[in-house]
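Bumping my old thread because nobody answered last time. Still need a sequence for this structure:
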């Protein structure tokens, strides 16, 4: 018996009847020989960690654009916090921790530079001129299916791909697995917690500004309160649950952040620049497709637009800024 098979047997004996067992995975789009050491979900996790898109997350905005101060979250640290929360909940509920971790690590691979403002700009361009749209979760799926590994994709399992696709709270469709639903909730919990901390650090809000009724419920450590409440209410259950007052407090805190941080003029003061930057880069690459790394002269318009979207969405904040400066900011002329 291989080590993988031994792990799969332990899962069958130990895990909750509501867990998604690795041995029961619906598999990959392209069949592959199984690994002797790792289950399908462990293998997916490793493929994501070793991907170029994952490494680039360290230089992509979470909320504050290109923060110089080291203690603000980036898209990578957000992803790691989602993973930690997801693993904790999955472990406590005897669900598949490996599956939850893989979904968490892959959920934001398609995020644009400059956070949601970058996502909104690309979406605006596509809706206005090309009868299309852009969502970061769909782009994350595109990254793992088509872009990574020189266009071959990572060939991830159905369950991880499903969790990536349906992780946003705005998606009406929920992930098929409880592990995917854990990450959907963990993502929400993570950014409510760390966006609160970062906004206080940045001076956007003060601790005493936080909604008092909500904070009275959530206490001094909202992250701990939320995670423990989910676990307490979801043990041996086919669904994730929270106490109504705790869930209500979480949503009240999110509404406060939305109105006082995400729409705050000071926090958003640089966004008009990113809007112009992305629009300018988009026009340039549409007019100069040969500047794209994988240019193909046989592309039709749809393929060209997709190539430009892939290229810009994959940029880090600093790469996008450097490209803009290289292309549009005059350089000093010097005698050689």
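Sorry it took so long. Here it is:
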């Amino acid at each position: 018996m291989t080590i993988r098979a031994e792990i799969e047997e332990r899962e069958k004996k130990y895990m909750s009847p509501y867990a998604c067992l690795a041995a029961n995975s619906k598999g990959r789009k392209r069949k592959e020989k199984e690994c002797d050491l790792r289950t399908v979900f462990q293998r997916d996790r490793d493929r994501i960690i070793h991907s170029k898109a994952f490494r680039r997350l360290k230089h992509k905005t979470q909320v504050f654009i290109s923060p110089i101060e080291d203690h603000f979250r980036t898209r990578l640290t957000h992803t790691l916090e989602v993973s930690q929360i997801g693993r904790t909940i999955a472990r406590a509920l005897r669900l598949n921790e490996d599956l939850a971790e893989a979904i968490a690590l892959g959920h934001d691979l398609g995020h644009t530079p400059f956070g949601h403002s970058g996502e909104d700009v690309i979406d605006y361009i596509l809706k206005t001129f090309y009868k299309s749209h852009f969502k970061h979760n769909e782009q994350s799926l595109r990254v793992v299916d088509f872009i990574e590994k020189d266009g071959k994709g990572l060939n991830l399992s159905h369950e991880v791909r499903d969790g990536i696709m349906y992780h946003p709270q705005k998606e009406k469709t929920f992930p098929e697995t409880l592990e995917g639903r854990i990450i959907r909730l963990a993502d929400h919990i993570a950014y409510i917690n760390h966006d609160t901390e970062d906004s206080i650090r940045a001076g956007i809000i003060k601790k005493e500004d936080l909604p008092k009724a909500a904070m009275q419920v959530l206490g001094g450590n909202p992250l701990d309160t939320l995670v423990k409440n989910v676990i307490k209410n979801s043990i041996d259950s086919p669904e994730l649950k929270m106490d109504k007052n705790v869930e209500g407090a979480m949503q009240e805190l999110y509404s406060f952040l939305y109105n006082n941080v995400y729409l705050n003029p000071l926090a958003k003061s640089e966004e008009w620049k990113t809007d112009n930057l992305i629009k300018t880069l988009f026009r340039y690459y549409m007019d100069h497709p040969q500047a794209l790394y994988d240019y193909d002269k046989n592309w039709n318009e749809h393929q060209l637009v997709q190539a430009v979207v892939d290229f810009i969405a994959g940029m880090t904040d600093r790469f996008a800024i450097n490209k803009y400066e290289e292309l549009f900011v005059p350089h000093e002329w010097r005698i050689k």
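The chain has a mean pLDDT of 95. Let me know if any region looks off to you.
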